[in-house]
Amino acid sequence: MEQLKPLLPHQVQPSLVHGNFWHGNIGFSHQKPVLFSPACYYGDREVDIAMASLFAPLPDDFYRGYESIYPLAENAPERLDIYRLYPLLVQANLFAGKYIRDAAEQVQALLK
């Protein structure tokens, strides 16, 4: 499938990912960042970046800071679009409504 080609040449270095990384699972304690409600596994670190930008994107400074320390690999934007589909499908399955439309729109965008 042509739309999945950005995944094929990508050499993933397995990283411990949060698995449910969005602004609702980030907080601060004593002025230090804290992550909670993880669904951790080893996978492509780009899945956390995709998730972070999906429902309520983090501030642009977060993405700039991340890129300055650990730049994303080539073709990351195309992969992020693919990686956003799974959490949308999960939300659609659990909550229906708007998420079904969002998932359908994401599939249509990927098929173009």
UniProtKB/TrEMBL annotation:
Top-level division of the source organism's lineage: Bacteria
SUPFAM superfamilies named in the record: Protein kinase-like (PK-like)
Signal peptide annotation: none
InterPro entries per UniProt: Fructo-/Ketosamine-3-kinase (IPR016477), Kinase-like_dom_sf (IPR011009)
One Pfam family linked to the record: Fructosamin_kin
Similarity comment: family membership: Belongs to the fructosamine kinase family.
Name used for this protein in its record: Fructosamine kinase
Organism the protein comes from: Pseudoalteromonas piscicida
